[in-house]
User: Which sequence fits this backbone?
């Protein structure tokens, strides 16, 4: 909780400081920034939940119609025949595919209900992180002064330098990553709208783009997280459409339900982000070799999961700063 509070404080601190310089009130500045952030999160979650619920209702009502049932059974038969040309698979009972999908949807809903306790724990953690963030934002500079007081006079300048470098490292990295995530979200939304112009019939475009952008905060995951919901929505919206089923990418490669089109679009976004956007926006803010980043992500993911992957790179950057300062201190200890 404290780690996330520190990260959020690092991101929001420049905005709070700028607002304080305008209205001359630290408490009011923190209040305005936190209320604005909470409002934006609530609006997004509410809109996303209502959109997903509407999408699920429409799909559930459509899947029970005779035309959808026939198309689903026909699609299952086609897939079975296509797979048997390349792989030996057992016969699939596609006669009752609709009831099977309904049973699958019911199981998913039951699993979601069982997550109520986990959601409650997440809400508690989020509230505590918010409280810690508000306290850190309101008293950040006082905390920093208190920390400096514990540094022995012999190492005072070295301590100040270490604190400044750690702040600078984390702040630059997080702000650069947020800008890169925003650019990925915008590019994904534009790409999805372009696919819609060609007949992909995608809904929840803005939310899928934002999800892809937020996932970009975890290195090497990025826009790929937007692929699955985009493909799922494309299939849900286009079942029953013979034109979507027989669609071809570049008029040559079969791409039923625009699946390959979606994959190609996200691959292009990923390449633009990796080779152009991230180097410009993030630059050398961390300055860690890609191999070290991979190792850090593996360690973080193994220890804590996705959360560990999110924190792995900034934590590695902090360790690099601390190690560099220790080496500098060791080499120049005789001058102190």
Assistant:
């Amino acid at each position: 909780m404290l780690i996330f509070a520190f990260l959020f404080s690092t991101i929001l601190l420049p905005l709070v400081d700028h607002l304080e310089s305008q209205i001359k009130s630290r408490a009011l500045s923190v209040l305005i920034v936190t209320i604005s952030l909470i409002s934006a999160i609530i609006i997004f979650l509410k809109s996303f939940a209502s959109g997903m619920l509407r999408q699920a209702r429409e799909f559930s009502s459509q899947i029970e119609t005779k035309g959808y049932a026939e198309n689903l059974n026909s699609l299952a038969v086609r897939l079975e025949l296509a797979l048997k040309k390349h792989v030996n698979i057992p016969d699939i009972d596609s006669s009752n595919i609709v009831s099977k999908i309904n049973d699958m949807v019911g199981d998913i809903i039951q699993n979601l209900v069982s997550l109520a306790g986990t959601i409650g724990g997440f809400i508690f953690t989020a509230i505590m992180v918010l409280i810690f963030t508000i306290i850190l934002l309101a008293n950040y500079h006082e905390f920093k002064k208190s920390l400096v007081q514990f540094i022995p006079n012999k190492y005072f300048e070295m301590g100040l330098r270490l604190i400044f470098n750690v702040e600078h490292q984390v702040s630059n990295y997080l702000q650069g990553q947020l800008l890169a995530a925003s650019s990925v979200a915008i590019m994904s939304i534009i790409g999805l709208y372009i696919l819609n112009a060609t007949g992909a019939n995608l809904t929840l475009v803005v939310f899928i783009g934002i999800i892809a952008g937020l996932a970009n905060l975890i290195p090497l995951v990025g826009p790929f997280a937007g692929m699955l919901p985009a493909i799922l929505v494309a299939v849900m919206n286009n079942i029953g459409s013979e034109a979507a089923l027989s669609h071809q990418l570049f008029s040559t490669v079969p791409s039923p339900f625009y699946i390959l089109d979606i994959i190609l679009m996200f691959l292009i976004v990923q390449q633009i982000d990796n080779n152009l956007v991230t180097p410009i926006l993030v630059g050398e803010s961390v300055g860690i070799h890609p191999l070290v980043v991979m190792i850090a992500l593996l360690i973080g993911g193994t220890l804590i999961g996705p959360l560990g992957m999110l924190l792995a790179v900034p934590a590695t950057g902090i360790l690099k700063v601390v190690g560099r300062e220790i080496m500098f201190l060791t080499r120049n200890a005789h001058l102190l």
